[in-house]
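Exam review. A common question shows you a sequence with its structure tokens and asks you to describe the fold in words. Practice with the pair below. Do the first one on your own.
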Amino acid sequence: MKALMIISRLVEYPDAALWQHQQEIHDELATSTLLAREDAQRLCVFLRELTAQDLLDAQAAYSELFDRGRATSLLLFEHVHGESRDRGQAMVDLLEQYRRHGLELDSRELPDHLPLYLEYLAQLPQAEAIGGLQDVAPILALLSARLSQRESRYAVLFDVLLAVANSAVDSDKVAAKIADEARDDTPQALDAVWEEEQVKFFADQGCADSDIAAHQRRFAGAVAPQYLNISNGGER
């Protein structure tokens, strides 16, 4: 399913290869059987507008959008489990899911990184891939709403994914729900998070054998050796 692979690349941190191969991507989208014609055109417009920018400007804007705060994080479990210990087990389970389909990771990205997950789905039969999109449709709708609120062109990628999934999620209700949501990427919000994490850090120093510390050690041991072979990694 090349269309999902393309969307994975478009959601990923922009690199020079995207600029160099944009014509091939346009050609592939034009012949996609997975995407509705209108959705394929929307992706072509997105790509054209993205690559009209200087690469460094596009990279800076991407980092500003997805790497500041948690509201638009591309780590799927961030929106489900937050910082709870359930997140570690969920990632281990997802790694096992990848492995059952013969895929191993070779990147430094966590397994719940959305571009990586889309790359995984692109390897599956269409019905299974669509089922995988439906599993994360509420998160896709949430990200779409938040990106639209910030007037980001990236919102269209999530709208297309929801269309491919034929999702039953009511995007209007999601948008209404987050309409009054406070931004978490402002300097004040980021400072507050930093101060909170410092308090937690120093508190943990006095209880090295706490349940949290033990969980972190177990999770690090379970995940660290298992990066093998599906993605270009989106390193930056």
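Now try the second one, then compare your answer with the model answer below.
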Amino acid sequence: MTIHNLYIFDRSGILLYYAEWNRLKQSGITREEEAKLMFGMLWSIKSFVCKISPLDTKKGFLCYKTNKYALHYFETPTGLKFILNTDVNAQNVRELLYQIYRQVFVEYVIKNPECNLKEPIKSELFKSQLDAFVKQSPIFGLKSY
């Protein structure tokens, strides 16, 4: 299994949704503190990438890798931020993030009149559809070596 967890933030840094599938190590801090650290790190990395890039950065920051995991980033034009942590060998993750946004988030959150985009997502339908979508992904079933 190579997908570890997913964060969805709004443009101002509110954690709208968090899910995990194969997270073996916990951070030791609250989910709220972890979300603040994640959002702050993303803001800093995006700023750093824009300032040091020798070329025009149309797409900006996309991902980073460590020896244990990779963090993949997708931002919508409206400022929603999707962050997916995977195994370092996972491929086509940006496309998966786009599909999560288009096929799950838009369908079960944006088009749902009961969902308020200024509050964390509580829709059980969204949660179940996201879980099923991620688990059917070819990335989900890969083994780490």
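Model answer, second protein: The chain has a mean pLDDT of 87. The radius of gyration is 15 Å. Full marks require stating both points clearly.
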